[in-house]
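Q: What would this chain look like folded?
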Amino acid sequence: MRIEEILAIALEKVGNDRYILSLAVGQRADELSKGAKPLLTSNLIKDLKYTDIALREIAAGVLTIDGVQ
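A: My prediction, written as structure tokens:
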């Protein structure tokens, strides 16, 4: 799946609010860089950057954002 498609799905998960999505991706990428375990299976995230992993986690629905319906 292309990154544009993943981004569109992730945007839907946060009510099409790009600001909330950017904050969530940035915070999760920071957590991953500090050693947090990815919530997706390892074959899906092999050789991806932390921001791409965070975006995929949000798009897949395994990472939810408080306050977003």
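The first helix runs from residue 3 to 13.
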